[in-house]
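Hi V.,

Quick status before I head out on leave. The structure for the redesign project is tokenized and pasted below; the design run finished overnight.
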């Protein structure tokens, strides 16, 4: 063998060794040890390789089927059928090296997203925190915990890891998410995976894909007026890019959402942006999943003028009729008008679970909501209000109903008297001879006291669609 050939072969061998040492197969963080995959469905398992056109083989412990594919431009992907399993499973991915994902469960997967009231962890000091933490030993509940991260461009991966639920990890995860998942887990006797992506103070535009905002003239114009902040992202799409886009291939059962307080500065935009966000997420995920959300609680805003939480709540209410497979939790009885972060997160999570159990999992005996405005009937100088979710009747906590107002065609609202009549409410005022509209709990810090017999509170509502300046209701404050 001549010397030049020996050098060529030697160099080629060293090149192969170097390539092999740097070659790698990997999957995104969401596909990792301790995860929960959506049961009884077809899920995507995907990742990357540094070896071009490499053949990848996948096997699971819950099936005898072997899956094969070839990587394309460094990416590989499988569609894998899942069953259900309360016991630990594994996935093995073989190429030039072996990747193994361990301690997998097959169950129900929910995304928990929004701002600070979803972000609020048990360790921040929720009600009964010590007792609830001590009981939080549920190895079949898993949390995917993500740090804060934003990006100007859509990301394919995100930071985060799956952990089993125990007192330590439960204390660091969304309290609302945990109590929701705990109810689902115990009622269905199935594993539950909860993905936490939340950021306190975040405006809804940061959770939407930027081109959606840029191509909608109304939303784009309003978003220009939104307040900027030095401590939370405000640029459209930056949270979506970092915390939602990397999850679009991951099969979920549904979403629970708690956000809206940071949009009270320009609340009218929420009528359009909130439903648009829901529909855009479903389209991008290619899943018509259920979306259950929390109506923001009463709060006494003292630090600025022209903040209208009542308009946000009305936009959230109207989303129920605009968008299918949605549900709304009312919190006007478990909030705190002096604290924008009420400490009762257990009931919020449980009320979200009522929507899921009733509408998603078919528990027809569970009433998912308090009274929701349905229709009105004018009879002389009185208006009778009908409600959904009041089939078994209504009741009042206290001596008399509060927070009802009534108006004639002059659009001036007067404080009204109101009484319960079975599953209806009768509303009237001596100052309004010919009423045409009713509003209920329509203010920032209203504390109403109307419930259904299941003990769930009625949502604030208005029967009018009067477009008054900045959404401020005209009221006569001289008459009670």
């Amino acid at each position: 063998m001549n010397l030049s050939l020996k050098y060529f072969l030697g160099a080629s061998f060293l090149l192969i060794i170097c390539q092999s040492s740097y070659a790698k197969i990997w999957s995104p963080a969401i596909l990792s040890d301790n995860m929960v995959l959506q049961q009884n469905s077809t899920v995507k398992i995907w990742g990357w390789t540094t070896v071009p056109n490499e053949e990848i083989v996948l096997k699971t412990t819950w099936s005898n089927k072997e899956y094969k594919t070839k990587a394309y431009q460094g990416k590989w992907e499988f569609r894998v059928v899942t069953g259900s399993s309360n016991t630990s499973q594994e996935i093995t991915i073989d190429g030039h090296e072996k990747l193994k994902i361990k301690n997998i469960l097959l169950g129900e997967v929910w995304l928990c997203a929004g701002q600070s009231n979803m972000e609020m962890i048990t360790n921040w000091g929720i009600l009964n925190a010590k007792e609830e933490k001590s009981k939080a030993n549920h190895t079949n509940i898993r949390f995917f915990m993500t740090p804060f991260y934003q990006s100007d461009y859509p990301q394919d991966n995100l930071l985060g890891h799956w952990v089993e639920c125990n007192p330590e990890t439960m204390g660091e995860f969304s309290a609302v998410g945990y109590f929701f998942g705990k109810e689902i887990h115990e009622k269905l006797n199935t594993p539950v995976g909860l993905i936490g992506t939340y950021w306190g103070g975040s405006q809804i535009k940061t959770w939407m894909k930027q081109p959606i905002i840029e191509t909608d003239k109304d939303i784009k114009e309003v978003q220009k007026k939104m307040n900027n902040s030095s401590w939370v992202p405000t640029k459209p799409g930056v949270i979506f890019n970092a915390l939602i886009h990397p999850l679009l291939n991951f099969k979920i059962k549904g979403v629970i959402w708690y956000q809206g307080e940071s949009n009270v500065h320009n609340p009218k935009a929420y009528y359009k942006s909130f439903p648009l966000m829901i529909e855009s997420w479903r389209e991008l995920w290619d899943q018509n999943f259920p979306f259950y959300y929390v109506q923001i609680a009463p709060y006494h805003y003292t630090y600025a003028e022209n903040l209208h939480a009542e308009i946000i709540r009305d936009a959230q209410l109207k989303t129920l009729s605009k968008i299918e497979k949605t549900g709304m939790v009312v919190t006007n009885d478990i909030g705190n008008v002096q604290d924008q972060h009420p400490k009762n997160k257990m009931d919020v999570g449980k009320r979200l679970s009522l929507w899921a159990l009733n509408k998603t999992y078919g528990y027809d005996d569970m009433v998912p909501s308090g009274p929701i405005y349905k229709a009105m009937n004018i009879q002389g100088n009185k208006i009778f209000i009908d409600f959904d979710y009041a089939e078994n009747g209504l009741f009042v906590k206290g001596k008399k109903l509060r927070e009802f107002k009534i108006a004639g065609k002059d659009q001036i609202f007067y404080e009204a008297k109101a009484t319960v009549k079975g599953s209806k409410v009768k509303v009237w005022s001596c100052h309004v001879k010919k009423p045409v509209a009713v509003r209920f709990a329509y203010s920032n810090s209203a504390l109403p006291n109307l419930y259904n017999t299941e003990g769930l509170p009625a949502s604030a509502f208005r029967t009018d669609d009067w477009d008054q300046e900045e959404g401020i209701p005209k009221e006569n404050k001289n008459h009670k």
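Above is the designed sequence. The first helix runs from residue 3 to 22.

G. will cover questions while I'm gone.

Best,
W.
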